[in-house]
Amino acid sequence: MTSALVVDDDPTVGDVVSAYLERAGFEVHRAADGVAALALASVVSPDVVVLDLMLPGIGGLEVCRRLRHDHPRVPVVMLTALGEEEDRILGLEVGADDYVTKPFSPRELVLRVQAILRRAAAPGPDGPPDDGRATAEPRGVSADGDLVLDRRAHVVTRRGTELSLTAREFALLDWFLSHPGEVHRRDELMRAVWGWEFGDESTVTVHVRRLREKIEAEPSAPTRLVTVFGVGYRWDALPPDRA
Fold this sequence. Notes:
Layout: E1 3-7, H1 11-23, E2 27-31, H2 34-44, E3 48-52, H3 60-70, E4 76-81, H4 85-93, E5 98-102, H5 106-121, E6 141-144, E7 147-150, E8 155-158, E9 161-162, H6 167-178, E10 183-184, H7 186-194, H8 202-215, E11 225-228, E12 232-235
Parallel strand pairs: 1-2, 1-3, 3-4, 4-5
Antiparallel strand pairs: 6-7, 7-8, 8-9, 10-12, 11-12
C-alpha cells in the first residue's frame, strides 16, 4: 500500500487530508511538528509527504530541506497560505515538488499527490530518435555525454556519480532529454511535466534553476539547459565530438 506522511499542526486540516488520502487508498501517518515528522519519516519511509509550511519548532522549510537530504527521492507537497508567494518560492527552492495553497480542495490535493506519484513511477518515453547527439540505448536509458538517465532505476548520473534529484527534477530532465533541440514555453512544461493546465509558472523557473545547479558545469552560464529569451527553454545535446 502506498504510504503518505501528513505533517500539520492543525488537527482539523490533518484529519481532513488524512481522511481523503485514506479514501484514495493511502496508508496515512501523522505528525504535528517538524521533529516528529523527521523521526517518523525515518521509521516509515513514506512514498510521499504532505507538509505544512507553518509548523511549531522546526518550520516547514527546514523540514523540507532535511527531508531532501535524508530522503531525496520522496516527493514533497507543501501546504502554504494563500498570498505567501515568497514562501512558496522558498519551498520550491529547498526541494518541494509541488504546493497547494490554503484554503484548498482536499480532492485537488489528492489528485496532485497521485499525479506526482504517477510521474515518479512512470518509465517515461524511450527517448528521442538517434540523431548522433542524445541516445536512448539500452531501452529505458537516455544519455547525453557524461549525463545518463535511467528510468527503470530512477537514477541520474553525471561522470559516473549519482545526482540527488527530486521526483519533479527527474521528470523535467527526462522531458528535456527526450525532446532535444525543441523550445518549450513554461506553460507547455507545466502541462507536460506537472500535468497542470494552469498555475504559477515561477514553479517551472525555480525547478529549471535547481536542475541547472546539478547538471551544468557553470549553472550561471548553462550550455545544456538554455534559456531562449522571450520564449522558454531548450535542451542542447552535446555534439558527437564532445559526447
